[in-house]
Sequence to fold (872 residues):
Amino acid sequence: MSVEPTQPKVREESAGLMKYSAENLVPFGPIHPALKEPEYFKLILEGERIVQVIPRIGYVHRGLEKAAETRPWVQNMYMFERTCGICSFVHSLCYGQAVEGLTIYEVPRRAKFIRLIIAEMERIHSHLLWVGLMGHWAGFETLFMWVWRDREIVLDLVEAISGNRVHKSMNAFVGVRRDMPEGMEDRIVERMKFLVDRARYYKEIIDTEETMLERTEKVGKLSQETAEKLCAVGPMARYVGLQKDVRLNDPYAAYDEVPFDIIIRNEADVHALLQLRLDELVASANMISYAVQHLPEGPIRVKIPPIIPAGEHATHCEAPRGEIFYYVKSGGGRTPERVKVRTPTLANLPVALEILKGQTIADVPIVLTAIDPCFGCMDRMSFLDTETNRQWTWSGEELRQYGINHYFPERAKK
Amino acid sequence: MTVTEILEAIIFPGVLFTIAMGFLFDWLDRKTAARMQGRIGPKITGPSGILQPLADFLKLLFKEEIIPSHADKVIFLFAPALYFLAPLLSMLFIPIIALTPTAGFDFDLLVILFLLAFAAFVVAVLSYSSASSFTTIATGRLVLQYVSYEIPLVLAIVTAAIYSRSLSVEGIVGSQTGLWNVFVMPFAFVVYVIALMAELEKPPFDIPSAKTEIVAGWLTEFSGRALAFLKLTKEVGYVFGAALAVSLFLGGPLGPQMGAAIPAALQYFIYFMVKLLAVGFLIFVLKTALARVKIAQATELFWKVLTPVSLAQLALVLILIQGGIPLAA
Amino acid sequence: MPRRKTGAAIPEMFRTLIEKPGTQVYPYEKVNLPQRFRGKLDIDPAKCTGCQVCAMVCPASVITMVDFGTRKVGDRVLPVKRPVFELATCIFCGECVDNCAFNALEMTKQFELATPHKEDLVMKKALAR
Fold:
């Protein structure tokens, strides 16, 4: 199929749906104490109520999908691990699973259990971090400090198993790189019991502390139809009552062998999200204890040649924030032909813009952090004309045409 | 005015002592909050970090001052000094080392009330003069919070004044030799402490300078010397608020005799400091234990709960006076 | 529905007040590192044979092979190479350690690598023999 190099067709969308003046516009970001990563949100207010939010993303776009096309398969594993700090293991797990789907090899059973253990530890870490942050945005510094002190327990365990607190580098193609150390079982079970007690105490505080309840109850409401229409994933779908969990719907790693409960909440506000994530923490701790005590014997890794057969494969996993999706296309060489990543924050961002409507400015950090945003994972590139304030995006084909026109102008038709 | 009186006014227990107490309260605040949260707090500067607030103040004095282009330069640079004077001047009316303060007179409670209102007005003007989108929101919140806490605060103070039949702090302290006021009007004390937390913008009422929502609220655009003095004023205001609570409700420097060997001034000083630190500690604990509420909820609390409570307390005290409860004065 | 109260965290606050704080006062206290900690790379020059596998698997292109002499194999003269490590770029993944067939590489527990001179982080230990 030959494509004529022509001028690309540019699809334009307007930057906003309503007129606003400078008086009722509050710029939120890109640098703001409430945002861990820079993204720009234009809040359009009426008094203290928000009427609309216009986002502008692309501040931390790194071009990882393009960089993956020039690196060998194993090096991409390390690069995608560094997409995000908090969900790093799930990124490398999902990429590994996508590539393993192109090969003929099966993951050994012990490796699946170890993957589950590390993934759940990452989930505990991420949820503890988030609960602490909610305390911080609500002005409740004490909860923030206590929760982050307990987060150190999980980080110490992860460091003992993998050697590093954040970038665990445990995944390899078809298996895991390191086995569980000797004698960790009792320590892990005891620490998980301790974490479950602490989680129950934090749930009690969040349920009874009057000022915290005033900040989180009835804030960030979302209806079930809107959640389905906007394709919310992860806890944002589960807090309105939808049964969306990849571990349940499409089990990967060892999730079909380790029993767990899916946590659903029906009152759709930030208070329910807090309860939901803490319940998930308890469920994860129980899963880890079960998996550590029922770890099967066997090999942890199958070494494969560095050439991956041609084909395409897509998988999804349940990151702490939602459903993460990887698509990999191989041409039969040493480097991939195309890798596409869709992280849960990108799916949840329209949900965030929707639940911000009608809130006051005091609620903005809480509601924006309720989706557990990780803008580093999610970023995409878009075009912005600052003079006319027009924003637009290009499809892949248009981007390719533009590249051809730019580098081979003699082939471009005027 | 003898030399002793001038020295008293400037060094101890006047201006320098108040500033040093402000730093001490800041350090205690940070240390107790840190220990209650499971961490250490200031540690390196001075033994156990006690010089940290002084180090922060000196550091800010050396920083560059950046003034936004739309701001009113005169107000921006001079109003912090006016704001700094209010609590500092009011401290001179509190008896610390004797039953008479450094510079008291018959109606100084009214002057204190005026200075409280004046300080809030200066803050509103300051906040409005740095014209950026965050500070405009902060000004709105600030004025709304001021309107909310002012009435319960004044009612609580006035209740103590009416009971003691005196409009000077010295008189109120003097009338508590028999029974401290807090036992007669406990609700007024509680209302005063809560309103004080709103005045000082401590959690749960630190809405106008909410760090995580509107960058730094009305403090956003200040830097350098102005910021140093604004922060110092907050600390001195804290000391003054606690000192006023001690004088009006807890009997000031009064206390049972400790023995003839200890000079009277030292006795008064020790009792005053113990009570001051107790009130300060109460506010530290409350500040660490609560989240920040929204401005609508704070206004509701003050207008729907605290104002009726303080009015009821005032009515109760008036009934007590009519019923002829004897006073010690 | 649990009872709502203000100051629900106060009992725990007083308990934490008398406990030991969770802070590790880092430069003044020694840090306990687990056994698997991945710190700075170290090479044993006696075991390295110059097989170049580490340079091929490194994801961060830290290892360059430099000439170290020649050797005779039959009637051919083949070059002998040794690795030079630019540790400033290292991502501490441990791929080189896992893939070295001669166990010449190891990750130490040293993590305080900040230095004002970039030359300090170039490891030429394998060239010493």
Q: What stands out?
A: Chain B has one domain: 3-322. DSSP finds twelve helices and no strands in chain B.
